[in-house]
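Hi Y.,

Following your request, here is the sequence exactly as I used it, all 758 residues.
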Amino acid sequence: MCLARAINRVNETKTMNRWKPSWKSVKTLLLAVSFLATASIQDVAGSLAKTRTAFSEDGRLLVVQTDELVIWDLEAKALVAKIPSLHCQQIALLKQDGWLLCVEHSVTIYDWKNRASVATIPPESQQPYSLLAYSSETDRMILRHGNEAVSVWQLGKKLVPLKHIALEVKRDAPSVAASPDTKLLAIAQGHTIHLYHLTSTTIRDLVIEGGKPRDLLFAPDSSRLAASVGKTILLIDPVEASIATRATLASAEEAQGPLTPEAFSRDGHRLVAANGEGSYALFNADTGDLVTVTEFTYAAPGREMRSPTQLRAVDIAADADLVVGQSEHLHTLQIWDLHTGTMLPDLCGEDCRNMGPHVSLLKWSPTGSKIVVRMQGGLNSDVDGKISVWDVPSRSPELVLDPGQPQAKVLAKRSTPPTFITTTPAVPAFVHALALRAVATSPSANLLVSSGDDGLLKIWDPGQGTLLRQLVLSDPANALAFSADGAILAVGTMEGDVRLWETNTWREFSPYSSRQGRIKALQFLPGNRLLVVAGERPKVPVVDLVIRTVAKELVHTSLSPVCDGNGCARKRAMQGEVVDSLSFLDGNSFLVTISKTGRVVWDMTTWREVEKPVGVPAVWSGLGWKQSLVWTTTRSSDPNASTLALWDIKRNGVVASLDTFTNRDTEIDHGPPVMLGTSMAVDPSHRWAATRVGEHVSVWDLSAQTKRKTFHVKTPYDLQWTSDGKYLIVATLDRKILVWSVETMEPAHYLRDPSVTR
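Below is the corresponding structure, written out as tokens. Let me know if you'd prefer a different format.
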């Protein structure tokens, strides 16, 4: 069927069915049975803290070592004990009520409720003891005596030694790890890992060929042992003494240094590994597959390229989902999502931005909702130089712990910031193998089309999250446009061709060569016959698709600033400018061409420029087919801020004022400096509006003019609604497309092509 007959048939069908209803188709390091052993082992690593601390399993009690050992009840916000005589390198709260374990050159079990020492292990070496594991279930602990030995102890009414295992020190100090349940011990010496089953006399050796294993780490359920061998992490079955799988980085670009296991997730299925000094890698611990790499980078002033940075302080949340740390260059406490590599909003924001505070304590609570911080410097005098407890959801300091006061100081909580999307798939959700170029939703069917630098055109059912069809193009598509009824899809390629498909059968019509170079934007006009094509040439042709001729050429000459010694004035360009985008006002006769320097409005009945259509604001953008509203920006009460607004052209005024923002809000505050700007989309029924300011997307109920939800998406650039208004589509610069559900007010899923893994 030729395109002319197709257009005529569509128009006839629309006339016959004018009155018929239209149908629309479719989160820590070594978390053990006791979290407290974990806290102690983190301190041994020394990645943080000069201030030693430990939580109880439920997060209620907090022990902090400063000039004296103090214990806080965070629920009661009260200081419950001060012990001036104990100075601990590691701390753990024990199974017995009121008992704590203090580890340094000697080991002391202290009953803080009765203010009495229960038992002491005297020094045996010039090096201090270190606690490898404590299990509240078995009430056992495993100690390392410097480089001399490892001992196993039964706690309880008496302190009973169970085993003493000598360490054979040769050239290198051995790497030692104990399982959280205190039933297994691993010692790496040379090329061999010795696995001791501590409840029996069994010892199994695992010889590692090709490298010396270091940095041993057990999973919380003791089912896996991680060992670093250069740029590979071995995941070992400790019972069978065999390598279950390997985790490594495939490309040299990703591998920044040796991989060091840092934390298993609570369930043991994910492993966080330090990748050199500037990034973390998240692996599937069952398969060894890489989930994502989080890079710590910053953009130096005046430079476009990102540079690596190191973290001065760092702690990983209990489920290995998030990491909090202070970058050398960001000068603030920042949180990263390890599943996506996304930098989330600052923990302390303006309280410490650009001040470079010295952080000596940074620790997640077991639940992940609190972070304990000790910082020197910053703008908040309430927390400067003190230990404070921060509420993670609101990014607010809520308690200040002063050991000189019996009660914690309660601070006013900040307003709750936007909700952040953390429901990212366990595997990368990419839609194309190379950069995502363009997306478009059909105005008549729940279809989404995406194009990428891989030369593929993909048709999706976004509600179901399924890939329906894939078309191969000779050149990548840079622009997409549906006709008003969704019957025709126009695709503009990088080489200047316009390709056309009938969307019912996906039969392709003959292509049209625009001779415009890379096509930047396409726009159908009513009737499906005329198509506006903006490319790299100054002239913008309006093409009659039936007879394949140019019906009209538009020459965009906007008013541009011209400056001389006497100042600046806006003057009209002498020659046509390249048009970057097109905007159409449905139901009216106006088309807008937009260049880098300005905008021109065209009356399509005469193809003449107009200063400003009646009832339309000076600067506006159309919202697509079936939209009688336009979006614009208005001034707010704050002279430095603007407001995104919906404008009703029939009433010649604002119908809804939505997000108010400043230019700073539209920028990304991580990675390379990028100005994302703002955008807006309204669903076809005019019930919902979505606004984007920088990386924050808000969904508004237009009838009540209230914000229903705000969430964060990494580097979004385009918003669109499905034709039934049930789903918001958010396309991002990192090849991901989020489908967000109005029904649940939550993310539904990310679109994913299973064949695309990187």
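Confidence is low (pLDDT under 50) at residues 12-49, 300-305.

Thanks again,
Q.
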